[in-house]
Amino acid sequence: MSEAYHIPVLLHESVSALNIIPDGIYVDVTFGGGGHSRAILNELGPLGKLIAFDQDPEAAENAPNDDRFLLIPWNYRYLKRMLRVAGIDQVNGILADLGVSSHQFDEASRGFSYRFDAPLDMRMNTEAGTTAAGILAQWDEAALQDMFSKNAELRNARQLARAITMTRVQSPLLTTGDLVRLAETVMKGERHKYLAQVFQALRIAVNDELNGLQDMLQDAAEILQPGGRLVVISYHSLEDRIVKDALRPHEDDNPANMTGQKEEHFRIIARKPVVPEAEEIKNNPRAGSARMRIAERQ
């Protein structure tokens, strides 16, 4: 199932960037189809260990039968907490391939894509949380406008939010087709781009993706050993902005430090993000927006 589940982006570049120690402990916080995880396991020796996270129950079908591997079925925002449960305090490297897997996009019933008419779900963890249909039915106009503005930077977020609140009084928005037909009545610009932004904004809200990313990056700074690598692949500017902010020096929170100096958790390995080669984008168009950042724990 894994090959069809997801094509790993920047596979060789990301695993190489981890600078793997054969007997080290590594974390793949976005297991998905397991492509990155299998490549990491290939670099590990018999004493090495790989812990993977994925909140999607379907991802467990891709877990390799390997004594060095452990899959934790939780959101990566609980990275530090769940590693402590597993008896691990520090690790040598963390890899994150953000966004939605190819499987989730292509499985019509999940409701992630406007290409299919399916229930408006969009939950990465199909066993918990509010669906996209629930948000469209329950959030008020101001909250919807804020979501479309912040999560997709839609220029007509207010107009779309108003259309949703007016329409749902007469007809609830229950399927992706319902949302597409409504969005098309207020659409600005190119159809594909506009609908992609609408669905992105709603998916981010359903899964609380941006807050979850911030939580994971904060945990990463605490559990990475000095010299350990953090490798993050993002797919849109909102994610990339959060990653860049997490990697730059921050004010020291220690009250004993009265110097006003900034605390540097990470040393940036590559100043510019690594992007896929043209051949990879040709073979996997979804890799086209990928941006990979690499940093080393100080």
Description:
The protein is α/β, with parallel strands linked by helices and 298 residues long. It folds into two domains: 2-97 and 209-297, Vaccinia Virus protein VP39 (Rossmann fold); 108-207, Putative methyltransferase TM0872, insert domain (DNA polymerase, domain 1), CATH 1.10.150.170. The chain is built from 13 helices and nine strands. It has helices at 2-5, 11-17, 35-43, 79-85, 102-106, 132-138, 141-152, 157-170, 176-186, 191-207, 209-223, 237-247, 278-283; strands spanning 25-28, 49-53, 69-72, 91-97, 224-234, 250-251, 262-263, 266-268, 291-297. The strands form two sheets. The protein has a seven-stranded mixed β-sheet, with helices on both faces. A two-stranded antiparallel sheet has the order 6-7. α2 crosses α3. The two termini are 39 Å apart. The mean pLDDT is 93.
Write the layout of secondary structure elements.
Elements: H1 2-5, H2 11-17, E1 25-28, H3 35-43, E2 49-53, E3 69-72, H4 79-85, E4 91-97, H5 102-106, H6 132-138, H7 141-152, H8 157-170, H9 176-186, H10 191-207, H11 209-223, E5 224-234, H12 237-247, E6 250-251, E7 262-263, E8 266-268, H13 278-283, E9 291-297
Parallel strand pairs: 1-2, 1-4, 2-3, 4-5
Antiparallel strand pairs: 5-9, 6-7, 8-9
Helix pairs in contact: 2-3, 7-8, 7-10, 11-12
Total E-strand runs:
9
Question: Judging by the overall fold, what is the CATH architecture of the largest domain?
Answer: 3-Layer(aba) Sandwich
Q: Which outline best applies?
A: globular
Q: Span from first to last CA? A: 39 Å
Number of helices: 13
Order of strands in the sheet with the most strands? 3-2-1-4-5-9-8
